[in-house]
Amino acid sequence: MAKLTPQEIKRVKAMGYLYNRDSEDEFNCRVITGNGELTSEQLINIAECAKRYGCGAVALTSRMTVEMKGVKYNHIDAVHQHLAKANLYPGGTGDKLRPIVACKGATCVFGQVNSAEIAQQIHDRFFLGYQAVSLPHKFKIAVGGCPNNCVKPDLNDIGLVGQSMPLLQEELCRDCKKCIVVDGCKIHAPHKEQGKVVFDREVCDNCGKCIRTCYFHAVVPQQTGVKLLLGGKWGRVGKPGVAVPGIYSIPQAMDLIEKVILLYREHGYKKERFGDMMTRIGDDQVMDWVLHDDPVQRKETILAREIPSKIG
Q1: What global pTM score does this model have?
Q2: What is the pLDDT of residues 231-240, one digit of tens each?
Q3: CB 256 within 8 A of CB 248
Q4: Within the chain, where are the H helices?
């Protein structure tokens, strides 16, 4: 076939097909999953599709999509039709919300929340619900089940981190001479005062380890939920996310995510990452909007507006 034009390459990239620059007309097709979960029927469908329309090779991406390699340009429509038989579709590219990433918090011994289930809720409400919404730049969300940071939620535009804030039940504390709560904390958040455990809230990251390990169950969760981090990014110039004060229930976190997405679309410039927008406007100002503004009330206006190019 004739050499592909830049317009043709750009058109199918928006559909989830990334051009293989070492070829004349081959693409890698990204297949969307719900947080990396597929049925056996869907796996079979992808394998058959990769063998029939690609080179037979399949790779897993860092954002939990499945990438079929070597798809010819003139096979793209057939790939769409084949994937649709198993309720699958390509995507995950462009200036919009990218596939959600999460650890397996319900499986891991350190997990404080079911991070995979939370990610699926975010996928359903925002990745699917905002699929037609263009944003100033790509926008990434990651959910970590605990502060161990395995999926780097602090380096995403929005990061959620499972939290269990410890509370001492003084009547159950036996003032052990070798206290596993104090001695077992890797960040030295608890210490003893007058024979009782005291937690330094400025140091404690609410990992929940002390709740699990106290032999006499003297430490219990005072509050369980997620911490939110805003404006993180990795790459050549990385930036850690800024924590929203407090611990939030999952419904509260979902509402905050929507506010952040709408504020980004309302105030961001084209090709400006959310973290860069926060730096330009000021972290404190953006945090004030997140906590006290209600952009959902003007959602239709925000989504209808043109995203401006950077001035100057």
Answers
A1: 0.93
A2: 999 888 889 9
A3: yes
A4: 6-13, 40-53, 76-84, 115-122, 180-183, 209-213, 250-267, 274-281, 283-292, 299-304
